[in-house]
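TASK: fixed-backbone design
INPUT:
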């Protein structure tokens, strides 16, 4: 790899991270137009790294790319939230079975300790708690040993992070989910795949309901561009 290519790769990664974080933090609203020229100027680069970065963001479901139209942040709707959480619940069912079958006792004890720490961190709320959730999910995902499941969850993780912030939960809602999370890990440790599967699906249905209701409440208070 030559120096120019290495520099372009670094620039692509930087653009992806910058735009992704702007979307997740709400600095770029759903439906917002993304100006490729402005991004190129901001990073002092050509349009090529910008196009590559936007393709990656499109693959992660954060922006839409349509011929002869400017890129834009994906519009958000209650249906989009419902669909994503339903799909994730199905994938987490597969993940539960794989974790019970393959994860070591030591790894499950570590995950259990992480779940307890997460339950305590719930009191912090806000961005620190969101980062704790994402760290926990990374650890949980790594234990399943199913390359296809990991690939699917990796492709969804930034959109999930975004939707969590859009449908930011109350203290009571987060506390409820923290308790559910500990129960899921207890089922992993008991090697009870049917129970872990059922608890994971139930927890994600509940989380999806919370996120959707919170999103709709915020829409009524301060409407954002959204899909139908």
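OUTPUT:
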């Amino acid at each position: 790899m030559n120096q120019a290519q290495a520099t372009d790769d670094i620039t692509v990664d930087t653009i992806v991270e910058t735009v992704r974080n702007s979307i997740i933090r709400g600095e770029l609203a759903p439906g917002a137009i993304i100006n490729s020229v402005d991004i190129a100027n901001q990073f002092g680069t050509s349009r090529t790294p910008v196009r590559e970065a936007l393709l990656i963001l499109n693959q992660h479901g954060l922006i839409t790319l349509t011929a002869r139209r400017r890129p834009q942040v994906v519009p958000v709707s209650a249906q989009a939230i419902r669909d994503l959480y339903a799909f994730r619940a199905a994938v987490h069912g597969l993940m539960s079975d794989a974790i019970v079958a393959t994860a070591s006792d030591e790894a499950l004890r570590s995950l259990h300790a992480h779940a307890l720490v997460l339950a305590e961190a719930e009191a912090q709320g806000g961005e620190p708690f969101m980062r704790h959730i994402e760290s926990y999910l990374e650890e949980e995902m790594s234990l399943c040993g199913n390359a296809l499941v990991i690939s699917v969850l990796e492709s969804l993780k930034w959109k999930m992070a975004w939707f969590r912030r859009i449908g930011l939960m109350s203290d009571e809602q987060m506390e409820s989910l923290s308790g559910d999370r500990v129960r899921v890990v207890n089922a992993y440790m008991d090697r009870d795949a049917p129970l872990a599967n059922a608890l994971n699906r139930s927890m994600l249905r509940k989380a999806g309901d919370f996120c959707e209701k919170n999103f709709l409440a915020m829409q009524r208070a301060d409407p954002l561009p959204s899909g139908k």
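COMMENT: The beta strands are 63-64, 72-73.
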